[in-house]
């Protein structure tokens, strides 16, 4: 399979018109080199806040952060135009990079702006931002992204922003973006270079079983071509041979196994290229590609706190993996699982979860079924509380995650004890 996909923050859009080369500045972004400056943001003005005793979240925003957020606020309403223009600039100025992108750019819609918005949100919180960027840098290895690609991307990104944020764009704003992008790209490059020393950019994996549980849900089990280390509760990206360079994210449906096999629960969704291929086209013997594992929805085995787990639809997959993980560590901590679906048909894994309950007296599994399951989920969970001493885990549709986090906070569970899949990645898991 091809080894060439999108560049950093590539966010496809509809084919744009050829840009006017004179209408956007060619900002000079320095060529990046791998360095030892891991875990820092040295070039970005995030340390100039005058209150060193405060946490990053409580610090007044730095001047660069103010300018960057002002830019993002201005371009957000025209995000599609910005991403279209960005790619037009990139392909006109650097036509040799076009083959690195998927044939159809629609599959990558909005990824650039999502990444920028995430970076802008945490621009004054280096620990959070660095962790996000390091994951992004490691993940881009599977795309074939190299250090020398970053200046071209930065140049065209700033060109697109300057065109569509003309109301707030000035020399100081451009300088802030050059500093930010230079530092951001360096963190990504460093993370990729470090990861290259210990792991491949991707793994080939052969499909060994394909269990169609419902007409649109399949449990797909694969055997990687080499050891694949991961933690229960994490997720990875998958690429199928039918849609080269199109990657989608799926959670592992089991804890690490002695035989090395990996399982995924996949629901085919309308217009979902990867999901439909995995559910309706994949068969034993087919070979897919896996990106590196990522995600922090993992169990802290240094405590004996109870686990409150909410899984909606195929979101039960990582919840099942967490239960297996607790069992393998020999703990007897309380684990309460709420398995939600709109109909009985959606509880495709209920027999598996009930068998786990029969084997482990510390585990309770409750099904929540209703046409308005997402609305009843909070009430069902509340009825069995209190939960303030529990660590909470959520996995399911983005809407369930967003409302579930607010509900759990209302139960008295602090934010730092609530873990869930990345909502941004869930939107793209099709």
UniProtKB/TrEMBL annotation:
<dbReference type="GO" id="GO:0051537">
    <property type="term" value="F:2 iron, 2 sulfur cluster binding"/>
</dbReference>
<keyword id="KW-0001">2Fe-2S</keyword>
<comment type="similarity">
    <text>In the C-terminal section; belongs to the flavoprotein pyridine nucleotide cytochrome reductase family.</text>
</comment>
<dbReference type="GO" id="GO:0019825">
    <property type="term" value="F:oxygen binding"/>
</dbReference>
<keyword id="KW-0561">Oxygen transport</keyword>
<dbReference type="InterPro" id="IPR001433">
    <property type="entry name" value="OxRdtase_FAD/NAD-bd"/>
</dbReference>
<keyword id="KW-0520">NAD</keyword>
<dbReference type="InterPro" id="IPR009050">
    <property type="entry name" value="Globin-like_sf"/>
</dbReference>
<keyword id="KW-0349">Heme</keyword>
<keyword id="KW-0479">Metal-binding</keyword>
<keyword id="KW-0521">NADP</keyword>
<keyword id="KW-0813">Transport</keyword>
<dbReference type="InterPro" id="IPR000971">
    <property type="entry name" value="Globin"/>
</dbReference>
<dbReference type="InterPro" id="IPR008333">
    <property type="entry name" value="Cbr1-like_FAD-bd_dom"/>
</dbReference>
<keyword id="KW-0411">Iron-sulfur</keyword>
<dbReference type="InterPro" id="IPR017927">
    <property type="entry name" value="FAD-bd_FR_type"/>
</dbReference>
<dbReference type="InterPro" id="IPR039261">
    <property type="entry name" value="FNR_nucleotide-bd"/>
</dbReference>
<dbReference type="Pfam" id="PF00042">
    <property type="entry name" value="Globin"/>
</dbReference>
<dbReference type="InterPro" id="IPR017938">
    <property type="entry name" value="Riboflavin_synthase-like_b-brl"/>
</dbReference>
<protein>
    <recommendedName>
        <fullName>nitric oxide dioxygenase</fullName>
        <ecNumber>1.14.12.17</ecNumber>
    </recommendedName>
</protein>
<dbReference type="InterPro" id="IPR050415">
    <property type="entry name" value="MRET"/>
</dbReference>
<keyword id="KW-0408">Iron</keyword>
<feature type="compositionally biased region" description="Pro residues">
    <location>
        <begin position="1"/>
        <end position="18"/>
    </location>
</feature>
<dbReference type="Pfam" id="PF00175">
    <property type="entry name" value="NAD_binding_1"/>
</dbReference>
<dbReference type="GO" id="GO:0008941">
    <property type="term" value="F:nitric oxide dioxygenase NAD(P)H activity"/>
</dbReference>
<feature type="domain" description="Globin">
    <location>
        <begin position="53"/>
        <end position="193"/>
    </location>
</feature>
<dbReference type="GO" id="GO:0020037">
    <property type="term" value="F:heme binding"/>
</dbReference>
<dbReference type="InterPro" id="IPR001709">
    <property type="entry name" value="Flavoprot_Pyr_Nucl_cyt_Rdtase"/>
</dbReference>
<comment type="similarity">
    <text>Belongs to the globin family.</text>
</comment>
<feature type="domain" description="FAD-binding FR-type">
    <location>
        <begin position="200"/>
        <end position="300"/>
    </location>
</feature>
<dbReference type="GO" id="GO:0005344">
    <property type="term" value="F:oxygen carrier activity"/>
</dbReference>
<feature type="compositionally biased region" description="Polar residues">
    <location>
        <begin position="32"/>
        <end position="49"/>
    </location>
</feature>
<dbReference type="InterPro" id="IPR012292">
    <property type="entry name" value="Globin/Proto"/>
</dbReference>
<feature type="region of interest" description="Disordered">
    <location>
        <begin position="1"/>
        <end position="64"/>
    </location>
</feature>
<dbReference type="Pfam" id="PF00970">
    <property type="entry name" value="FAD_binding_6"/>
</dbReference>
